[in-house]
Every structure is written in structure tokens, then in C-alpha cells.
Amino acid sequence: MGVFKTGKAIEMAYELGLDLVNISPNATPPVCRVVDYNKFLYEQKKKQKELKANSKKQELKEIRFGPNTDDHDIAFKTKHAKSFLEEGNKVRAYVFFRGRSIMYMDRGRELIMNFANGLIDDGIAKLDQPPKREGKKLVIILSPKK
């Protein structure tokens, strides 16, 4: 329509039976539009809902190890972790210690770091959280590399 003074714009909106909606208040001069305000709100909500539906949701997948997990089992679980990371999910790997196996904390730390380094060296993952002890678990979190 054009650029109008505020009073003139309000008058035009009143004559048309519509509302003067401030679209971009930080612009110079501020951008306003003569529209039906309820319809404007409805369209805004619809756009927000569409954006939310199109956004990718990231899940946290878990992989569990024991302190005495065999090399073949580690390779098998690494393959699963690769597929999770390629789908865009985060991976939370942990070594669970039960009973007296808590004495082998260093073996568990070595196991989980070898697992993580294998994925990081392949260029698939990056380390979000270094090994951290949570009760009877030693936890590490990996996220996909963009």
C-alpha cells in the first residue's frame, strides 16, 4: 500500500473494520500491516506448528557394557552405535559394575574410552561428556558429528 503516518494508518484500519498490527517494531520505520488480528494470530500459530512438525527430534540411545565385555561384543555394539549416530541420535554408553566388579573401574574406563575413540577416529562421533561415574555406572555421551 505504501508508507503512512501512524494517525493515517489507524484511520485507514478503522474505516476498513480491521486492525493495525505491528509486524516488525525494531525496523526503521516500524512495519505495520492492516489485517484482521484474529486471522493473523491463527496464521502465526499454524506456521509455528508446521515448523515444530518439520524439526528433527534427537533421541538418546543407550548401550550397556560390563567390565569384562569381550572384543567381539564390543565390535557388535560399536556397529549399533554407528547406526544410531548416523540416524542423528546421541549415544549414551555405560559400563555397569555389579558386586565386586567395581574393583575393575580402570578396566571399565579403558573399555569405554576404546569404544569412544573408535567412533571418534572414524569421524562419526564427537565426545559430549567424558567418562563420569554415576553410582555403579561409568557413563560417556557421544553425539553425531555434523
Form type: rod-shaped
Assembly annotation:
single chain
How can the largest sheet be summarized?
Answer: 4 strands, mixed
Structural class: alpha+beta
- SSE sequence, one letter per element: HEEHEHEHEE
Number of domains: 2
- Estimate the helix proportion, in percent: 40-55%
What do these coordinates show?
The strands form 2 sheets. A 4-stranded mixed β-sheet has the order 3-4-6-5, with helices on one face. The protein has a two-stranded antiparallel ribbon with strand order 1-2. It has helices at residues 6-16, 37-54, 71-86, 105-121; strands at 19-24, 31-35, 60-65, 90-96, 125-134, 137-144. It folds into 2 domains: 6-54, Ubiquitin-like (UB roll) (Roll), CATH 3.10.20; 60-144, Translation Initiation Factor IF3 (2-Layer Sandwich), CATH 3.30.110.10. It is 42% helix and 29% strand. The mean pLDDT is 89. The chain is rod-shaped, with a radius of gyration of 28 Å. It contains 4 helices and 6 strands. By secondary structure, it is α+β, with helices and mostly antiparallel strands.
